[in-house]
Write a structure and sequence with these properties.
The chain is mainly α. The protein has 9 helices and no strands. It is globular, with a radius of gyration of 19 Å.
């Protein structure tokens, strides 16, 4: 017989799967609500903010109501960030297929990889940390992506491999979880990175305060 503890864990696991699928549906719906270019950013922020509150802060929040609240929360900034990231990726992708010289193609591929790594945690930064300007958030995202490069590489290796297998064998699951599962993976990895990033930032601030005190 299953113990009560195992039943609770199985129940939590199933609720977690349901939340990931539900957040994916909400992400699609609210992205379309904003006609794509005005909806993808806020929908991604809302999804990542919910994941942060769920996974890092361990809060149990109503999904749809909370998603709508977060969708409106930092609408302008999330739209601008999505335009910056997607614009850079679009230009670099076009360059890869249009430039003739091999070294320019290699350069664009490297820049594309750098952009993906650097922008991976941008909405996680926006949701979990207290940066106010887009410049600060982009800088922090690049610091997290490059500073914890091994985490980022493992993250995208797992996501790409899993989604390839799903596209070959279980394409219906790909549509069911889609962006929702990618967001979950980024937030799951980002949970550890954010905690370490906050600790390192606090340590630097403490050292600066101590140094200022000693100089006086």
């Amino acid at each position: 017989m299953l113990s009560l503890d195992r039943i609770v864990k199985i129940n939590d696991f199933m609720i977690g799967i349901w939340k990931v699928a539900y957040l994916n549906v909400l992400w699609i719906g609210f992205s379309l609500l904003g006609l794509g270019i005005f909806g993808v950013g806020p929908a991604t922020y809302a999804m990542m903010k919910y994941y942060d509150r769920w996974l890092r802060c361990e809060e149990s929040l109503p999904v749809a109501k909370t998603f709508w609240k977060f969708y409106k929360e930092r609408w302008k900034q999330s739209v601008l960030i999505s335009w910056i990231g997607l614009g850079i990726i679009f230009v670099l992708t076009i360059n890869i297929f249009n430039v003739i010289e091999w070294y320019l193609q290699v350069g664009n591929v490297m820049m594309l990889a750098l952009t993906v790594v650097g922008m991976t945690h941008i909405y996680n930064v926006m949701a979990a940390l207290k940066f106010q300007t887009i410049r600060e958030m982009v800088r922090a995202s690049f610091m997290m992506g490059l500073g914890y490069l091994h985490y980022t590489i493992i993250l995208w290796t797992v996501v790409i491999s899993l989604y390839y297998l799903l596209s070959v064998n279980f394409i219906s699951l790909l549509f069911l979880f889609g962006i929702g599962f990618i967001g979950f993976c980024i937030s799951f990895v980002g949970k550890r990175i954010v905690m370490e990033f906050e600790e390192s930032t606090e340590d630097k601030e403490t050292k600066n305060i101590l140094l200022k005190g000693e100089s006086k």
